[in-house]
């Protein structure tokens, strides 16, 4: 496309100007524009990635700079994949991912559908609802530990008020059974608006004429919802799930502030576990292998998902 | 940007030449420590140093749950934030072997500072690496040990005393053994006092840093847990997971389940103080540093509170050592001034004033002076406690050893996974792996 | 009654929808309101049970946030009578102010690093976006995907080699290091968003400018930049919010000099345990700018959070 534009310009440009432009070739100009970005990303992203891959085959420890670094081959990978505790953190992450996505899609879609009724003030309330997701997860997560406190926290009090439970009788963060839900609740609170916004865009992209046609065919509202709304909005929902999925797979700040991985290790998500290995135990080589495994997982899953997404879009 | 690069280059250069000291010029010294009451007292104390030396002091205090994490990160990244570090006792192995701290032997010799002048347990705990050798990396700065605080005013109520005697067949008094301590905690748990529900004991259960380990070890030591066999410190099997150790860990879980406030599943120093000061609990496990604050507290201070050392168990009578030494960070560009501070801090008058301001001096001349034991209501308890201390590993791999213990113990005590035997067996496996990786086994 | 439409919901449905949405919004706001309210509570009100909704407001939390205090003896207190209202508040608790706290510094670090990295990433991002939008770049799609993929890696994983690089170059705990790092992380967002905005500017404008004798670069900054101003501004705000909220890198790579507010606020403690009013005061001051920006941004919000994939 740009070729045609440039050709057109070239033909229409007086020779004097043409010489001026041709002083620098298009390719050179393009690289002047793009170069700095690529260089910075190479330096701060690609080089470190390669270094991580190299380190993952060694027993290097960043806190023991004087110790000899040995090449250990695949030993780190072997140890990680055969470590039941790391599998437990993967399970905790999967549990967290599944339920946060489930609730966020459910509530987010419902909210978008309601907002799409275009009642008075809907724009104002949309902005209000969006607020939590823009805030610092670390700061907000930290404050939620206060809301969750059994004696003085307002969360338990509200739950107690509606269900009659004793507000000091349960501890969202301290109880092994409740802690996984404590982090799901906060993440859902924060990120439901994200799904909502995307769904809203999807709903608004459906042309009215489609519904009008369906109305002429005497399709029931229920049928319209399942045969028109849902398929039309599917690509949007899948996009929302992709973004939230990647974000929550990386989840660190919110949960580390909320539970720090406890009690025991029931909310120790992979990022938290990785942080312990890399920056508390300082097993740098081991942690690098761990990081590489996470890269591969996230890229693998994301690219499979994107393929599926494109298929849905094309339909 | 260019300015910045140039400045960076300059700092890098200066870093390379850090050996060359700046001489007698006034320096800006930064001292890094945990954010807690003693640190505020140290600010007060250091004003004299600023006046005398002309150096300016700044302070970087980090709360305990983040302290080790952030400061070790700082040291490991070769950072120049801290000139002086009051680092935790267990870091000494790592800091010495990785060259984070400056070895102080020559300096001590030149300045006539003798380690014999300090409480022996603190010299071994805070200054030496390898342990038991005269290689000093720090000057004992703050002596600390886990002990207990109790509500003397509640203990002295006649109606409670009578009820306790009836139920347990002995007087309601400071417990001699851990079993007695549990009885008392059980007695107070859920009781109405002055119209409020109160609970038995506030104990350490924190997961993120070192909390639950610092709590559990107080019980484990006294039930027969040792870190290794007497002749081989790395001989773990049968010592770390001995039948006594298992029993001790079970005891801690029982204490947690029967007699602690609801929701106390992630508590360390500040949460336990909070619970005690707000009148929630009858007993509080905590390091001795809190005692000056408790004594002056508007709600529970003065005669309303008392102090006792960690009670004995069936197999021993020890208490977890806390406390820190003060070291010079080897990446500092103000080494001379930092050493000057240590020299100033080691003086007996300064140490005496340190104690008066609420800092637990480790200088024998201070704690053995006539009238010391009576100088504060907690002074005798402090002396008794310092006589029975035992520390956690101070190996260079301490962080890994600690994290394994946090994980295993929290999983059993708070999360209720598995049995005590399984938890300690798993701990032996974790520790073995750490020592094997480190070439010690 | 206006003209009948099948897609226009009935009045009753609008009412129900409105009620449900407003109800949700109010519930969702509660934690935020609680943060703001707690900032104005006294420390005993903040931990009262049951939680207090009505309380006497005080600025104690804000005073605690900005000062370091020491317990003082009655004699010391008598010898140093309070001179200002904030000294009075501290005095009443039997304490004395011994100096300013670190909060101001940490907040300024957030401002410096936030604005520095935003400026750099928008600057570089605009250039790159223009390049991708207007020129035939070899492997364009791959490069664009590569730029995006840098955002998919868990920050902790990225931090391992960055930590080592910073240590080797002396960038640990420096403003320059954090600005560089946040710029790199934000570039992907900036390039993708800005490419979308620039794609929307008709080429004909530049072509006309070129015919008028402008050079490529003149056409870029005299024609394209003014047209893309709104897009650049909203991209800048998104970059700023990311840098403002970032926690993982900040907690691992800074310790004092360049530490930003997010790792600092959770570590605010008082003289006895957590000082929740001070924490809330800090959180309020820290969150407010973002709330303002969110309201300013509301039209471009969707685009920003989806990297330009959904444009409304």
Main sheet makeup of chain C:
2 strands, antiparallel
- Strand residues, percent of chain A: under 5%
CATH topology of the domain at 104-267 in chain C: MetI-like fold
What is Rg of chain C?
A: 25 Å
Helix content of chain C: 55-70%
- Note the total helix count of chain A: 14
The CATH topology of the largest domain in chain A corresponds to MetI-like fold
- Say how many strands of chain A there are: 0
Instruction: Evaluate the radius of gyration of chain A.
Output: 26 Å
Beta-strand percentage range of chain C: under 5%
Describe the structure.
The complex is a heterotrimer of chains A (315), B (441) and C (312). Chain A is mainly alpha-helical. Chain A is built from 14 helices and no strands. In chain A, helix 5 packs antiparallel against helix 11. The two termini of chain A are 26 Å apart. In chain B, the strands form 4 sheets. Chain B has a 5-stranded mixed sheet, sandwiched between helices. Chain B has a 4-stranded mixed sheet with strand order 8-9-5-10. A two-stranded antiparallel sheet of chain B has the order 6-7. In chain B, 47% of the residues lie in helices and 13% in strands. Chain B has 441 residues and is an alpha/beta fold. Chain B folds into 2 domains: 188 residues, D-Maltodextrin-Binding Protein, domain 2; 216 residues, Periplasmic binding protein-like II (D-Maltodextrin-Binding Protein, domain 2, 3-Layer(aba) Sandwich). The N and C termini of chain B lie far apart (51 Å). Helices cover 67% and strands 4% of the residues of chain C. Chain C is mainly α. Chains in contact: A-B, A-C, B-C.
